[in-house]
Amino acid sequence: MSNPTLRRPRILVVTPEITYLPEEMGNLAQRMCAKAGGLADVSASLVKALYDQGADVHVALPNYRRMFHLDVASVFEHEFQKVSRALPEQRIHLAEDRVFYHRSSVYGAENHLISLAFQREVINHTIPQVRPDLIHCNDWMTGLIPAVARRHGIPCLFTVHNIHSEHLTLAQIEDRGIDAADFWQHLYYRRAPGTYEESRSTNPVDLLTSGIFAADHVNTVSPTFLDEIVNGSHPFIPDAIRNELRGKKHSGRATGILNAPDPSFDPATDPEISHHYGPADHVAGKRRNKRELQERLGLRVDPDVPLFFWPSRLDPVQKGCQLLTEILGDIVARHSLQIAIIASGSFQKHFQQIVQQHGFHDRVAVRDFDEQLSHLAYAASDFIFMPSSFEPCGLPQMTAPKYGSLTIAHDTGGLHDTVEAMEVAENRGNGFLFRHFDAPGLRWAIEEALRFHTLPTEVRETQLSRVMRESTARFNHQRTAAAYIKRYEQMLGCSVTD
Asked: Which of 216, 227, 233, 237 is nearest to 151 (CA)?
């Protein structure tokens, strides 16, 4: 590690996902898009913010050639840059392995092979080349690297985006070209290790918990989700992860930093919608978008009917879609409303069966997820559903208010941090929260939303204009990146930007 007092500290961001990079970081920067979730957006925004503010930032990610649409010439150029290590502009470090090249998605059946190949290249090549002063790792696919950083005295921040891990033995890790014997003492095992030799083949390493265990500082992607883990909520969370995060939190080395929506979600400029609008003219804009969505989905055209939108994957384990199916028939029968479900997932068939059984075709639409249609639904809807049983962060509830759509949410995790109860008399709030994760709780929140919709037009217009302005100022990548930069500077004891 070089002396940070002689220059700006060098930051290495290690991520399996990205959506874009600043053009100035290289000829391939705008072709680096491999996304499975919010991690890709956060990584992109953080790297851009660091670069724009003059930080010495580098990024390591797998070379997903197929997803990056790299042709032979592009690959040759990158290979030339790799051997020309003196090039000062070389800030993008693509891990090379055939397991990445022909993939069409970030995750799949070969997750452990992808993870080990990626980490092998970062450990063996990128870290020695970059000589970073701080490493920022993300999720289980980078879980070995904090141990390497600790072994070499490099401060490391580890971000937990999702509670998912993989378990591999030291023998399996070493079989993929990683010298785990060099840092094995800094890893977290299924049972307390004795010696290297006795643990090598029979004591699996927990990758996510290893990242938490070895990192100097850890953050989750919302403050409340961290508190819930530490305080014993969510029984599905393994004790190892809970105990390590609890220890980090109690020692002042764990925090929560909220994600933020992609900047393309802006009703004034969104390229996926035809009728743009802002806080000052949202009424006319939303009515036009609602009409277009209703026509496209086969719903009865009525710009005055309250329209509810389901934006998240239909996963009953996390997203709470089963709560809506329990009350869907009764809610639609009793109230004048429409529901647009634009989401894929195993639970979709249950919604389709209810629509078919009750003949709700002109009032409830069920479609597979489609990016353009989803953007239009944000612009058309009055309310969105986020009744998750748990939520590490969540993005739809931060996206919707920018479009003047209010969130109906279970009061948990990142939803607690971003959705406040609408209190018209107090001129505050951006949604409707229910505390108990059950169908009656969701029903209550829906009825609260419908009551809001019956308020005088001028009252609703004033509140929605306020919500749109506040959400744009609050939920953005600049604020998220600033929080990470502050954490870097606290860890290093010096400024990382100009």
From this structure: 216
